[in-house]
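Entry 14. Structure prediction run on the chain below.
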Amino acid sequence: MSKKLTFAVRILFLIIFIFMAYNYLSFSAKAEEKIIKVKNGTSGDIRIREDDFVTFLPQLKNKKLKSHYVYYSPENGKNLFQFGNGKYWANRQGIATVIISGIDVQGNLNFIADYNVIIESIKGTTEAAINANGLSSTSVLLTVGGVSQLRIKEETNGIIEWASSDLAVAEVDSKGNVTGKLKGNTLVTAKVNGKIFGWIVSVTSETRKKAVEWAKSYSSKSEYSQSKRMEEGYYDCSSLTWRAYNKLGINILSDKYAPTAADMGKYYDEKKQIVEGGISAENINKLIYEPGDLFFMEGPVNNGRYRNIYHVEIISGYTVKGFDKFGKPIIGLEFANRHQVDFRGFVGKPEI
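Output returned:
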């Protein structure tokens, strides 16, 4: 490369840098910044406006986590942009999920918290809130023949158009009663007043349904502890997973004691009881996963365990976050214990 060309390239990069710095400073001057002090196990909703900043500061008791082992979910998306060190900028209105996790030097998950960041437009309206179902969950879990009634918080005047994307899996009647017909997943929608509301209905086995429901219930009223993981009132990720199935007569590797997440992952991987492609946007949109499947997370730290696995979560179903301007659903995954946005790893399928 000639000296003239090299000089021109340097000048071009300098111009780009000055332009980006100017824009950063210009919206920084008018933007507000919210500081969130995060404690282990906390979650909630954070409301900010377009062009505002929010910074998450983990309150870590374990000093070993402070240097290199704190991770933030990579929400570099359409709504929220990550600058690093827990700082995010709200690009445009919508909803994004931020997860803060801490891994110790042994590769164990010792800190986790999650927040929904609700970004309002400068005018003060939130497009995502308009699309929300007004329900605690948009995931419905049924067995074959099971029935659940779907409801929406909307003035309807009695006119609702109900539909199921796969009638072989589940049917829905004019009153929102949905009936499981065949194992699988289907999108059920309700159109009213020009708006679309949606649920993902999963039809699965009685064992998987009970395992998911037990894990949700137990983790919500118990305390996370690796040292007390097998004691009543306590759990860690692998003991929660193992006990959820063990109580139903399904033993993963042992009938006495919960193995580690890495040992579980190795078991399903070597038996080829896995989902091709792991967790991906394509697989989520195709509704590939079945409630009760197990997601094994592979960490960036070499922890000396199989595939650097450090965490396991039970997939509990799907969530409908809203619909885009073309009416296409925005679908995510739900988990029995903790939200996840870091999808490095693979999915194991218990034969149930």
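The two ends are 63 Å apart (CA to CA).
Filed with the rest of this week's runs.
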